[in-house]
Amino acid sequence: MRPERVIVVDWSAAGRPRTGKGSIWIAQAAGQSLETENPATRHAAEARLAERIAAALAAGEQLLVGVDFGFGYPAGFARRVTGQADAPALWDWLATALHDGPDNANDHRALAARLNAMWPGDGPFWGNPGSLDHPGLPRTRPELPAGLADFRATEIVARAGAGRAKSPWQLAGAGAVGAQMLTGLPMLSRLRRRFGAALAVWPFDAADAPVVMAEVYPAMLRAEVAAAQGEGEQRDAVEVRLMALALAGLSARGGLAPLFAPDAPREVLAEEGWILGAGHETALRAALPAGVDPPRLRDDCFAMPQGVDWVPVDDALARLRADLRPVTGVQDVPLAQAAGRVLAADVTARRSNPPAPNSAVDGYGFAHAAIGTGPQRLPLVAGRAVAGQPFAGAVPAGAAIRILTGAILPAGVDTVVLEEDTARDGAAIVFDGPLKQGANTRKAGEDVASGARALPRGHRLRPPDLALLTALGVAQVPVYRRLAVAVLSTGDELVAQPGAPAAPHRIYDANRPMLLSLAARWGYAPVDLGHVRDNPGAIAAALDRGAAEADVILTSGGASAGDEDHVSRLLRDGGTLSSWRIAMKPGRPLALALWNGVPVVGLPGNPVAAFVCAFVFARPALSMLAGAGWQAPQGFQVPAAFAKVKKPGRREYLRARLDAEGRAEVFASEGSGRISGLSWATGLVELPDEGGAVAPGDMVRFLPYGGFDLG
Ligand code: AMP
Ligand code: MG
After folding, report:
1. Is there a contact between 204 and 273 (Cβ–Cβ < 8 Å)?
2. Which pTM was predicted?
3. How many whole angstroms from 606 Cα to the centroid of ligand 1?
4. Which ligand 1 atom sits closest to the C-alpha of 562?
5. Which CATH code, of 3.40.980.10, 2.40.50.140, 3.90.1150.10, 3.40.50.2300, is assigned to 484-626?
6. pLDDT band at 563, cuts 50/70/90?
7. What is the DSSP secondary structure assignment for residue 104, as one 8-state letter?
8. CA–centroid distance, residue 559 to ligand 2 (Å)
9. What is the residue-wise DSSP string for 434-489?
């Protein structure tokens, strides 16, 4: 379909008439026009929608109506309630069962309790914001009845794409949608009956009627909404507005068709429904009119060209480098806390170094104009000039003054003779001329002049930088907020607690301590997400937490394409995964994706591979995110102390260290399970993509751990 008019509705389950926060918002976009309404009750909203639908039909226009609640429940629910695995039958049932007055007074909690009673145990619905317990409606999430899932297939996809969609069973709490569904689905039943064949509810009906209603999820555009939201404006209002604009924009360029063709089985669509646009977040964003700010991270970031099989290391690095943007805010910190932080702006000198001309040596100072060539004899004035005790008077031309290193040059002095080059003659000094004017002195600002740029934005502060900035009178610096790096381990075989009892088929989670400490060593705030089993729900929950608490998530394990590789599967379902098979050894599979808009780097499970990939990919990527720019590993050429024949077509990293002669020796076994080799090594030898033989004495590239801030 190619509607010329798009309406987007943000529904509300409010129990009283209400406008503003938590109420119903309706936006309509058509051509250049955009209108937003805020009806106070569901009855008013439904009447308004019916009016608009009738108007579009009368005008012979196509209309798309997006509504922000789920049109179906997870598979298994509808059949239990109505006997048919069919969402429209369920809406009809709910339309009869729910009492919802013109003043918004309604009994959706009693209805949920009634539905719960159809299952043994607690039933699926939960959550009650009221102070009174509601019989049959648990306050917290119950054990779900057998066969019912928390989420529909489409929610899994949408959650990975951008959102934090909540389960339809959850009736209360921030972002919950369950109550909106119970109070909204009856409206679908009524509108469908009222307009008959002129109105289709997709995907239950084919999207070829003049009016099509579909479920939308405006939180997909969270970043754009945040950027566009004006002072005092309701987020819901901005959400419906932007979603209407995005859908209308996509429609105008004929780009809606792929959104109506989700990759899901027919039965799933008929029973659960589908969020229009899930997995197409990028297309929706791109359809927004100019002036709506783009997010800082592109969500097709990491996408590799189709059909590429083995990605060379340099190509993968170049893609990463091009797609990542700093994601952090800015704060001012005192210098004492600034080591390791990244400057968010150029820092200029507040005073010169040195602040005043002074002596570079211990000796005698005088005016250069009064001396010439050959033996010189200058009477000494009383007193002396010492660092911290400037000489208050002036030195007459032809006289000299005792001066020590660091002392400000007194008035009348522009040149200093070194103590060792002089002799005392009573109250005078003698020495041989000539001397250059200004000899043995330092000019004011000769190191850094006041107002000059001392350090550039993006510079990561090290101890010498603190000396510099302190000398320049700088007390606090603007730095990027410390990047929070979450670390998650996955695998049924893992034992999370070091040293805990472990059966022979279990292994200790070696990656997490390593990756957390790498993050800390690189100057970031580590966030420990712990370990989860190979279970999609648990991994999704951990990723949700990571996305809420951190700027980037490092996972290990489950990143290839095996049966138990749930990390890749989840990210792939979300449509943002790029699974790179990188032409390198060790550590080929590397998954890159966004989860709720937060970059996820899926490292291989194998600790050696995880470490090497962390060095080669994660460290420069994190540095980019932290605002410090791309930090390629530093390496240098050293003679090899080993011999090796290397296959062409992939880059290899060998665990290595320098022997007493400065030659690189490599660990005896290349087995990627040999963690002892990582610990034995002080760096890596990088062998280029091309094949070839390395003989002892040949030059090879050594990347010291020290070059990774791991000295
Ligand atoms: P996977 O990528 O999940 O197939 O894991 C590859 C190999 O790495 C398997 O032998 C895993 O047991 C092992 N592995 C995965 N995660 C860890 C970890 N956190 N610590 C130690 N070994 C791991
Ligand atoms: Mg695994």
Report:
1. yes
2. 0.59
3. 5
4. 4
5. 3.40.980.10
6. low
7. S
8. 8
9. ---TTTTEE-TTSSB-TTSEEE-TTPBP-HHHHHHHHHTT--EEEEEPPPEEEEEE
